[in-house]
Amino acid sequence: MTAPAEPATDDRFETARITGEIDALAATHAGRDDTFRVAMAQLLKAEFVKARQTAQALLLQDRHGRHCAERLCFIQDEIIRILYAAATKHLYNSPNHSSGERMAVIATGGYGRGLMAPESDIDLLFILPYKQTAWGEQVAEAILYCLWDMGLKVGHATRSVDESIRQARADMTIRTAILETRYLTGDELLYAELVERFDKEVVEGTASEFVTAKLAERDERHRRSGQSRYLVEPNVKDGKGGLRDLHTLFWIAKYVYRVRESSQLVARGVFDAQEYRIFRRCEDFLWSVRCNIHFVANRAEERLSFDMQREIAVRLGYTSHPGMQDVERFMKHYFLIAKDVGDLTAILCAKLEDQEAKPAPALTRMMARLRPNPKRRRVPGSDDFVIDNNRINLAAPDVFKQDPVNLIRVFRLAQKNNLAFHPDAMRTVTRSLRLLNAQLRENPEANRLFMEILTSDNAEIVLRRMNETGVLGHFIRAFGKIVAMMQFNMYHHYTVDEHLLRCVGFLQEIERGGNDEFTVASDLMRKIRPEHRAVIYITVLLHDIAKGQPEDHSVAGARIARRLAPRLGFNAADTELIAWLIEKHLVMSTVAQSRDLSDRKTIENFAAVVESVEQMKLLTILTTADIRGVGPGVWNGWKAQLIRTLYYETEPVLTGGFSEVNRAERIRAAQAEFRAAFTEWPEAELNAYVSRHYPAYWLKVELARKIRHARFLRASEQAGHKLAINVGFDEARGVTELTILAVDHPWLLSIIAGACASAGANIVDAQIYTTTDGRALDTIAISREYDRDDDEGRRATRIGEMIEDILEGKVRLPEVVARRAAGKGKLKPFTVEPEVAINNQWSERYTVIEVSGLDRPGLLYQLTTSISKLNLNIASAHVATFGERARDVFYVTDLLGAQITAPTRQAAIKRALIHLLANGDVEQKQAS
């Protein structure tokens, strides 16, 4: 249980004055209890609002989140004490209480810790000696009704001491709430009885049970909120490395060690003085962030969303530096704090394992087999390290000082022997980082061990531990610069270092094979030259290592690789290959997603970049791991098929075997695959259907989607629909897919985009095909608006009805879109510099217009409309969204079917589109 909260400053809540004013109100409203309650609630609400404003002003001034949480808690404590006094003095004053007419008002749960965020719930427990009495019920109701009238969120329970003990034994949530109880007012002897009996009858002998339950709760919470502590929109309360992890740590410590304050953990040997200072620093920082979020949002918001991050950064005093925005510096600090929380949790868990309060770990959660595990024994192949309860530990305190290479060796030995890391060893590693000097970085044995770690099983896990201890950033100094670095955009889900480590993990999954997501990359991994296996591993680890620098990170990263690779044992040729892969690591993704892969010029241009089949194999593997490592749902079957198509279309060019015959064979193979998988129709019908699609369709669409298309087309035509829409839901990507079948029309894409915009649907990508009999088959992916699929389905139906109405001339699209746009006043927290490139080298038949800018509802409609008004025909469009950035590519001709070659015409097109990207609302008004 916790000591009462104290005010953090001399700016005290004026309890005596307020109590006097309530006494005066009681006299004024004598005999009218209802009006007295209303007047008292109004008075306390006004005082509460003023006190909150003062707390916010002090937070902005001193930026100490814990002090703010203490202030807010103290204010709440005083209000409850005032209410209890008023209820027992003015409303239900009984001069002769019976033995049962006693009550203790207790703070529980988060409120019981003595720390409150501005919008936190108030958890109260009314403790009674026996059963409920009329007096106790009336007093509790008077307090609660007044708190509710003040607009506060209150959780409450009324129980006897016996009932509280009984429920605490049976329910871990109630047990945790009582663990954090704090006396507020009323009969203090009742509270003392609860504390004493809770310790003796509930806590004693149940430490292992409690620890297991709390750690299981933590794991489930992490699973729900995202396993990584490096998610770029973290949950400050429940996310990994957030406040709840600190709370869990302290709950466990209080339960096992029976401490009342976190400072007592030093005396119990759990933390040393430095680690306790880290604990307090983490707590203060996280409370600063959480309190500021609540004040800004004016609600109990716990997610540090993009639109909140910049404002919180400014409130906490962060400023921009060259290469990093203020918000990126703030978020880097946040992720470093989250890492410290994880380290503290590991230290406590190790202490508990030593006392057998929780089971010992392994490096991976799934052991290959059970094996005897003596408490301490020597690690095979080393006299400097021992196995301590299935964790690697130091044989002597000075093993790193005696041989600094051990700072790398300890991680390799743990990896080879499937051992977890003992926190004592990791503490010593962190305190020995000064030994990671230039001499050690150039040491051949240290570099050999590092490459073994990178290219062996469980590399992601071991590299992450090296990163968390600081070894990775000190051994590869360029890596240290991107540790905890966040990119302020909606595309990347993780910090840069976390992204790179995850990419290594996905590379190992690609190499193992068996995952249908990575069929092409897995096949190519088996076919690369053996000496290039290490090349692809180091490339994947380093490909984003120059993020955060003013220049192009691909070019800067290649330069870093040229300096680093020889040190790691690579020869000159392999060093240059690594540098080339890093410099070109975005090319394949860009070409696959934003170029016409059926255009021979596209393939020839890409072949000129990759130069050889071996380099293309490596680039394909790198691209697959990179996209998959961005975040959940970013890699999907469509992108996999595009990468596959680009690879197999380019391979014959590089081998000198490019010909239409070769391409025809690939088309026939794709059609044969479809026929083999889709056996529902008679052969004649199947043959007729296959002939309805152009070659590009068979090469670019994945098999599962082809089968869905076939069923959709047949059902639509049998029903006699001129326009049909099929709705699908991709949970991994968080999008709704609309597959639209309609008679082809020059403005159809614009109409579809406009209908989506009118429904508030934001298009994130599009696949556009035309059949040989003049039907358009377009698949549009839009961001979800509703959680329930049936709600999303109704929204899709509205879009379909809008498309039909527009095609039939019942509504004018510009007017509908303009009305919708007028209601969209909220600006995103991002800025993207508009870019337009016009190129005649990417196609022999078409002029290619590539536009890039801040995504917004209706953008695709505006672009297609503007391009048509510029007297251009759109032959094909390639629509993609990377977070907040839209990148759309249009293959166009003039009205006579020729490329746009005149510089003045190109300049006019570019000016119009840049103006649209920068001033979309203006263009929208003009269009209407």
TrEMBL record:
Report TM segments: none
- One family from Pfam that matches here is HD
PROSITE patterns to which the protein is assigned, alphabetical = ACT (PS51671), HD (PS51831)
Documented activity regulation: Uridylyltransferase (UTase) activity is inhibited by glutamine, while glutamine activates uridylyl-removing (UR) activity.
Gene3D superfamilies associated with the record:
3.30.70.260, Beta Polymerase, domain 2, cca-adding enzyme, domain 2
Q: Which GO terms describe its biological process?
A: regulation of nitrogen utilization
Q: Catalytic activity, per the record?
A: [protein-PII]-L-tyrosine + UTP = [protein-PII]-uridylyl-L-tyrosine + diphosphate; [protein-PII]-uridylyl-L-tyrosine + H2O = [protein-PII]-L-tyrosine + UMP + H(+)
Occurrences of domain HD (ranges):
496-619
**Comment field on protein domains:** Has four distinct domains: an N-terminal nucleotidyltransferase (NT) domain responsible for UTase activity, a central HD domain that encodes UR activity, and two C-terminal ACT domains that seem to have a role in glutamine sensing.
Name the job this protein performs.
Modifies, by uridylylation and deuridylylation, the PII regulatory proteins (GlnB and homologs), in response to the nitrogen status of the cell that GlnD senses through the glutamine level. Under low glutamine levels, catalyzes the conversion of the PII proteins and UTP to PII-UMP and PPi, while under higher glutamine levels, GlnD hydrolyzes PII-UMP to PII and UMP (deuridylylation). Thus, controls uridylylation state and activity of the PII proteins, and plays an important role in the regulation of nitrogen metabolism.
Q: Which HAMAP family match?
A: PII_uridylyl_transf (MF_00277)
Question: What is the protein name stated in its UniProt record?
Answer: Bifunctional uridylyltransferase/uridylyl-removing enzyme
Q: Which organism is it from?
A: Rhodopseudomonas rhenobacensis
